[in-house]
């Protein structure tokens, strides 16, 4: 029910903010720690320390973690969809495909994804879905990188590539240059080894996957090291040249900032329910509250004419004011609430870098709450 409320609230946004005519989206996942319950479906084993124990086995501990796969609208600062999975059996790539297939928007959109979403199956879904454009960061020279990507020269380049994909061992034997996906059409056993892994492939046995590969130099020239990043996309090089792609992918960081606000400003890092169903309801209610606060913030105005830096509304103070407004049965005038929110703002310094000094950490009182 709360997921439907999330969808219905998002449908009330009639004039969304656009980025060069596109809805700018991002997909990423985040873990939420739940109260321990040995019967919880979210129970998993986590490593408690990096050093091996005396019997040459890594020390693990049971914990309840829920993994939230989230679709975020960067330009409008709202969560569009969420798919919850157990941390033990999470599959971020399948979750991303599922959310993109369920997405219904009136505009073309660009979805930004990090290296964990590198998948030929996801690329082909993005090529075939209507109005869908993707930008995915790829592995470069580490283990698991695509061999054509590893062979790219150490210089900025913008290339159109075609990857021949098959899930047939016969085709792979006849054409060694093909990429074979371990996604068999049939399963001959009911049970497999826990170490057995299969990939997802939802298309023909042989399929050429077309995408544009962009290699960028991201480090500062004054720093001694040279670093490269590679992006896969189906955006046109005429509309989004190489210089624009670097700026575009940098906007993906907004979804990471939204997780910080969701967990620590709204308090989603703390759960009060013990049953898994109620815990999911709590998380969806926090997503809805995040969207409500940002929708109200979009109605506020802060004058920047006589200030050195542009200012933005403080999210945490706005969340507290909105929470107080709804808990008092909404007796106050909404205009008064907006005027109160506009009083809390802070400067925005783009590209600010400074050393963070170490500070002494004191004890925390038992009655302390995260929000």
From TrEMBL:
Q: Which residues form a coiled coil?
A: none
SUPFAM superfamilies, alphabetized = Ribonuclease H-like
Q: Which residues belong to any copy of the Transposase IS4-like domain?
A: 21-291
PANTHER family reported for this sequence? TRANSPOSASE INSL FOR INSERTION SEQUENCE ELEMENT IS186A-RELATED (PTHR33258:SF1)
Tell me the protein's name: Transposase
């Amino acid at each position: 029910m709360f997921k439907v409320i999330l969808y219905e609230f998002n449908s009330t946004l009639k004039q969304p903010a656009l980025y060069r005519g596109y809805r700018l989206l991002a997909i990423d996942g985040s873990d939420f720690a739940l109260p321990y319950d040995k019967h919880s479906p979210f129970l998993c084993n986590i490593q408690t320390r990096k050093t091996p124990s005396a019997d040459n086995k890594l020390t693990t501990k049971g914990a309840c973690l829920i993994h939230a796969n989230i679709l975020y609208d960067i330009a409008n600062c709202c969560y569009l969809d969420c798919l919850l999975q157990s941390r033990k059996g999470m599959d971020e790539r399948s979750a991303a495909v599922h959310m993109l297939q369920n997405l219904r928007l009136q505009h073309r959109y660009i979805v930004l994804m990090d290296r964990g979403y590198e998948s030929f199956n996801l690329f082909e879904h993005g090529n075939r879905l209507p109005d869908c454009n993707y930008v995915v960061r790829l592995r470069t020279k580490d283990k698991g990188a695509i061999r054509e990507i590893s062979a790219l020269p150490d210089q900025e380049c913008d290339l159109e590539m075609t990857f021949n994909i098959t899930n047939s061992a016969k085709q792979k034997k006849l054409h060694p240059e093909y990429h074979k996906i371990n996604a068999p059409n049939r399963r001959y056993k009911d049970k497999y080894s826990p170490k057995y892994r299969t990939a997802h492939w939802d298309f023909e046995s042989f399929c050429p996957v077309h995408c544009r590969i962009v290699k960028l130099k991201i480090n500062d020239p004054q720093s001694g090291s040279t670093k490269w990043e590679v992006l896969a996309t189906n955006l046109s090089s005429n509309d989004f040249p190489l210089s624009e792609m670097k700026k575009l992918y940098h906007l993906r960081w907004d979804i990471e900032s939204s997780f910080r606000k969701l967990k620590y400003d709204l308090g989603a890092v703390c759960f009060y329910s013990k049953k898994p169903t109620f815990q999911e309801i709590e998380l969806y209610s926090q997503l809805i509250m995040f969207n409500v606060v940002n929708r109200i913030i979009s109605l506020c105005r802060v004058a920047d004419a006589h200030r050195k830096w542009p200012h933005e509304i403080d999210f945490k103070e706005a969340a507290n004011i909105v929470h107080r407004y709804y808990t008092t049965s909404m007796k106050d005038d909404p205009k008064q609430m907006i005027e109160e929110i506009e009083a809390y703002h802070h400067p925005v310094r783009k590209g600010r870098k400074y050393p963070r000094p170490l500070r002494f950490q004191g004890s925390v009182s038992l009655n302390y709450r995260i929000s």
